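Late entry, evening session. Most of the bench is empty. Finally got around to the prediction I had been postponing all week. Sequence below, unchanged from the version circulated by S.P.
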Amino acid sequence: MKLEKMIEDVKRDCMYYILSNMRKNELSMQETRVLSKDILAMFPVQTPNELLAKLKQLSKTHKVMQEVFIKYAKRLEEEQKEYVLKNIPAYLQMGDVENALILLKGGVFHG
């Protein structure tokens, strides 16, 4: 997933959870203001992993954001698995076992 699309989706999901929790009276106006400010402070980000790390921190501070973090953690993990499965054979075919092992062990993700 492209970073720009992921950012757009995260912002949309954060807004959804804020509104949903406000409707259920699980967030006060003050909590909503603080949460909104904290969401805006997450940006800009340079990589999907940076966005995920900021979401993780946000979910620790604001429990209502845990579902958003889990959703994107799962998505990013799946994308990384797909990337590894797609690229390991290419490295092995080129005889580049060292980089294949780095990738397999969770090396740098180029997604």
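Two things to note before I forget:
The CA atoms of residues 59 and 67 lie 8 Å apart.
The longest helix spans residues 66-93.
Will write this up properly tomorrow.
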